[in-house]
Design a protein that fits this description.
single chain; 332 residues; alpha/beta; Rossmann fold; 2 domains; 13-stranded mixed beta sheet; 13 strands; globular
């Protein structure tokens, strides 16, 4: 059991192990609340930009579907006539400089999720330690008129116009504790401060629902080569997932009739050739997430494929999103 799996088990309920971490959670949550208070009362500066800023994030650690929702939001805005740009901190990258994601970008420089977003949408994406620096870079070099802050719900130094909170439909808020005793980055009461709540799964009262499903497989060595997922049903397949909830990916593959030998890795895992060569052969048919594929493409074998994940929010959310964006643009 890796560390991610360990904490996912601990965070399911208020067990003895979770309670043992509670003093650290109290310290952590106190620091978070002091920081929030500093921004709310003006002790810390909040920067305002002339263009609308949409924040997509969550209260818990790990994957709730932020990246596929960001991709959906970008395409929705493009279809509505806007010129969106995406800003991110670029979790997992190894440099601190502000960077415009492009053809030569690697996960070490851009982070895995920003690279996926750029490749899927082809809109300007900038990463920076301070998100305001990413916005300034996009304003300076690109013709953007609206911005999406990916995983930006806890970044308070930029004034935002629309806050969208994603919730895991299976795990929700876990045991309700803040890190490290639970999965919360901040108290769940801050959910009341967002504009739209969207559940990856079935929403509850005052929440919208979203479906995430796998669509097609793209070859890692030749992205013009694609296959339907159904075409893998009669093959021996190895599935790799270095994401917050690998079991969800494996379950989605199984729902497509794919029987796979599954390999789980920690979220944002930094894959290398030797590691995967120890469990795979060059002839193996391999399916992996897009986030993992950007880190494996440079040493991939011909039968390695990444599987696209598409988010589809319910119609009511799509209408609410469009209405909110239109109102924000008019007010700006």
């Amino acid at each position: 059991m890796n560390l991610d799996d360990f904490f996912r088990q601990v965070w399911k309920d208020r067990n003895l192990t979770a309670l043992g971490f509670w003093p650290l959670s109290l310290l952590y949550s106190t620091i978070v609340e002091i920081r929030r208070f500093g921004y709310s009362c003006g002790l810390f500066a909040v920067e305002h930009f002339q263009f609308p800023i949409i924040v997509i994030g969550n209260l818990t650690v790990g994957g709730t579907g932020k990246t596929p929702l960001t991709i959906w939001a970008v395409e929705h805005l493009k279809n509505a006539g806007y010129s969106p740009g995406v800003i991110s901190r670029g979790y997992g990258r190894r440099i601190s400089e502000t960077h415009m994601v492009g053809e030569d970008s690697t996960p070490d420089v851009a982070g895995d999720e920003p690279l996926v977003i750029w490749r899927r949408t082809n809109v300007p994406v900038a990463v920076a330690r301070q998100r305001s620096d990413a916005i300034r870079l996009l304003i300076k070099e690109k013709d953007c008129n609206i911005f999406i802050s990916d995983d930006g719900l806890q970044h308070l130094s930029i004034e935002s116009d629309l806050k969208i909170m994603l919730i895991d439909g299976e795990e929700r808020f876990g045991n309700g504790f803040c890190l490290p005793a639970g999965p919360l980055r901040e108290s769940s009461r801050h959910a009341n401060g967002v504009d739209l709540k969207l559940v990856n799964g079935t929403g509850q009262k005052n929440e919208y629902s979203m479906e995430c499903k796998l669509t097609e497989a793209v070859n890692l060595l030749n992205n013009s080569k694609t296959r339907t997922l159904e075409s893998f049903a009669n093959e021996t397949v190895s599935a790799i997932a270095g994401i917050r909830n690998p079991k969800r990916f494996f379950k989605l593959l199984a729902e497509q009739g794919i029987q796979s030998k599954n390999y789980s890795f920690p979220d944002h895992h930094d894959f290398d050739r030797d590691e995967l060569s120890a469990i795979l052969t060059t002839d193996d048919v391999v399916l992996m997430t897009e986030k993992d594929a950007v880190k494996c493409a440079h040493f991939a074998s011909p039968n390695w494929w990444c599987v696209k994940l598409e988010a589809t929010p319910e119609a009511a959310f799509q209408n609410a999103f469009s209405d909110r964006v239109s109102a924000i643009v008019r007010s700006n």
